[in-house]
Amino acid sequence: MNSKELIRINDEYGAHNYHPLPIVIAKAERVWVWDVEGKKYMDMLSSYSALNQGHRHPYIVDIAKKQLDKVTLTSRAFHNDQLPLFLKKVCEFSGFDMALPMNTGAEAVETALKAVRKWGYKVKGVENDKAEIIVAANNFHGRTITIISFTTEEQYKDGFGPFTPGFKIVKYGDAEEIEKAITKNTVAIMVEPIQGEGGIIIPEEGYLKKLRELADKNRVLLVLDEIQTGLARTGKNFAFEWEEIKPDMVILGKALGGGIMPVSAVLSSKEVLGVFNPGDHGSTFGGNPLGAAVAIAALEVIENEKLAERANELGNYFMDQLRKIDNPHITEVRGRGLLIGLELDVPAREYAEKLMEEGLLCKETHEKVIRFAPPLVITKEEIDWALDRIKKILEG
Ligand SMILES: *Cc1c(COP(=O)(O)O)cnc(C)c1O
C-alpha cells in the first residue's frame, strides 16, 4: 500500500488527536528513516527525545531479541530476573537511592504526584487532603486528567473537566513567584529544567539553584521532570547537572526505553519513595522484564558512547551554524546540547513542511519554533548535511 492510501485509512479509522506531517515511515536506522515509497529522510525530532540512542540501536535490539526468547511479562505479582538489575542500574546512573518503574511518561508523572502528596501527609505532616504542588505556567507533563488540570494550554483542557485540585501555577523561570506561592501545605515544586514542548524555554542561570534553596528552606520537595531533557539530551546526563544541584525526585521516560519500549521511572530517596506500601500503586506492565532489559541496555549505550559529551559538542556546533543563517524572520536560536529551538516571527509549520520535502524531518512547537533534536548518535557530517538543507529552505 502506498503512503496516500495508508494516510486515508489512518484518517478513516483513527481518532484525529494528531496532525502529523504527511510521511509514512516504514523503516528506520540510526538517524535515518525511509517512507513507504523508499524515500530517505533524516529524523531531527527523535520522537520528542525518545530516540536519543538512535533508531534500532544494534546493541539494544540484540538485548531485546534475546529477552524476547526468555520472558517478557510477569506482572509485579512475581519477581523477574531483569527488574532488580534495572533498578540498580538506573539508581547508580542517576545517583538516587530508589526507583519506581512505570511505562509512559505521564504515568511516571502521576506516580511522582502521588509520592509527593503521600510524603506530605505521612512525613511532613500536612493536614489530610490539603497538599499543594507548585508547577510552572507553559509546562508540559503529559495528558492525563490530573496532569492537564495544571496545564496553561487551553486546548489541552477544553472539554475534559472537571479537573484535579491541589496545584498552583506560577510563572516559569521566576523563583520569587515560587517563593510567594509556598504555604505550609506545599509538598512539592515540579518543573521541567528546560521547557521542551513549551518552545525550548531555558530559564535564567541560577533558577534551579534558587528552587533548591527554597525547597530546603521550606521543607518542600523539588521534583524535576527530565522525561525530555534527561538521558544526555542537553549535553549532560541530566539537565540539573548544569546547575550542580540535585533534586529530591527526578522523572525519566522517553529515551529510557531505548526507542523500543515505553519505560519510565521515578527516582528519589528512601524517605520519599519509602511511603509506598504494597497495594498503594502499580502497573501491570511497569517493571516488565523486556522493558527492564531494554532500559539497562539504553543506559549502557548512553554511557559507553558518551552521548552526553557528543550532545554538548555537536549541539554547540549546530547552534553556531544555525545562528549564521540569514533570514530576517529568525528571532532567536537557543538550546542546550542537542535540544535546539529556532524561533521565528512567523508560523513555523510551513518551514517544517518544506524541510520534509528536502528530506529533513522536524516539527514546529508552539507555532513559531522549529525544534531540532536529532538522535544523539548523529555525526558532524550528518549535521552538515542537515544544515545545507536548513540553509536552502530558510535562506531561499
Ligand atoms: C513527553 C513528555 C511527558 C509525557 O510522556 P508520555 O510518554 O508521552 O506520557 C512528560 N513530560 C515531559 C517533559 C515530556 O516531554
C-alpha Rg (nearest Å): 21 Å
The parts where pLDDT drops under 50 for at least 5 residues are none
Query: What's the CATH superfamily of the largest domain, by name?
Result: Type I PLP-dependent aspartate aminotransferase-like (Major domain)
Bound molecules: pyridoxal-5'-phosphate
The level of helicity is 25-40%
The CATH architecture name of the largest domain reads 3-Layer(aba) Sandwich
Strand content: 15-25%
Query: In the CATH hierarchy, what is the class of the largest domain?
Result: Alpha Beta
| 3D shape | globular
N-C termini distance = 34 Å
* Number of discrete helical segments: 14
Architecture overview:
37% of the residues lie in helices and 17% in strands. The protein is an alpha/beta fold and 396 residues long. Helix 12 (307-323) packs parallel to helix 14 (380-395). It has a seven-stranded mixed sheet, sandwiched between helices. The chain has a four-stranded mixed sheet with strand order 1-2-3-13. The chain has two domains: 3-56 and 306-395, Alpha-Beta Complex (Aspartate Aminotransferase, domain 1); 58-304, 3-Layer(aba) Sandwich (Aspartate Aminotransferase, domain 2), CATH 3.40.640. The longest helix has 20 residues, at 105-124. It has helices at residues 3-13, 46-49, 58-68, 83-94, 105-124, 145-148, 154-157, 175-181, 207-218, 270-273, 289-304, 307-323, 349-357, 380-395; strands at residues 25-29, 32-35, 40-43, 98-102, 132-136, 167-170, 186-191, 221-225, 249-252, 264-268, 330-336, 339-344, 360-361, 363-365, 369-372. It is built from 14 helices and 15 strands. The structure holds pyridoxal-5'-phosphate. Pyridoxal-5'-phosphate binds at residues 48, 104-106, 109, 140-142, 192, 196-197, 225, 227-228, 253-254. Residues 48, 104-106, 109, 140-142, 192, 196-197, 225, 227-228, 253-254 line the site of pyridoxal-5'-phosphate.
